[in-house]
Amino acid sequence: MSVSIGDLLRRTHGLWEYIDEGGEGAKRLRELERELIEVQQRETALSQENAALKQTIADYEHFDVERKHYTRKQKPSGAWVIHVRPGQEFEADVEQGMEFCANCFQKRKLSILQPSEKRGSAVVYMACHECGAYIMQDKPPTGFAEFC
After folding, report:
1. 65-80 mean pLDDT
2. Measured between alpha carbons, how far is 12 from 32 in angstroms, rounded to an integer?
């Protein structure tokens, strides 16, 4: 027979009519109720944590399934990006031609790279707005030097 903590708390409330308010029994009953409330709060917290962990596992498993739809691609600059494998179709908000940050992909995030220009630079970069990385789009011109 399984009894919930809520049932136990209801039972302790029913005992008050049989216990003298100022006596030792009342002190023990108050302590028991306090401990039952603490156990109920811990049970609720553990239940919520369990649900969150199950969701995290499901997200990881989903990403592992989706991961096979992507491959690495080296840009003319030598930098690596992630893109959808040619001919792949799957249920995601991803289109052919999109490029993603390789750094974020390793952290199980899909972050679309966006064209960006660094101030004072003639080179076009792809920027990751998730991790802040800048990836040079094309091969740098001969004699190219950039200072931060």
Report:
1. 85
2. 8
Secondary structure of residue 118 in the 3-state scheme:
coil
Contact indicator for 80, 102 with CB cutoff of 8 Å:
yes
Report how many helices (DSSP H) and strands (DSSP E) the chain contains, helices first: 3, 6
Alpha carbon separation from 74 to 27, 69, 100, 102, 132 (Å, rounded): 73, 17, 12, 11, 19
pLDDT single digits (tens) 113-141: 998 877 666 677 889 999 988 888 776 65
- Cβ contact 86:73 at 8 Å: no
CA dihedral angle for residue 95, residue 99, residue 100, residue 106, rounded to 10 degrees:
100
C-alpha distances (whole Å) from 72 to each of 14, 128, 144, 145 are 67, 16, 26, 27
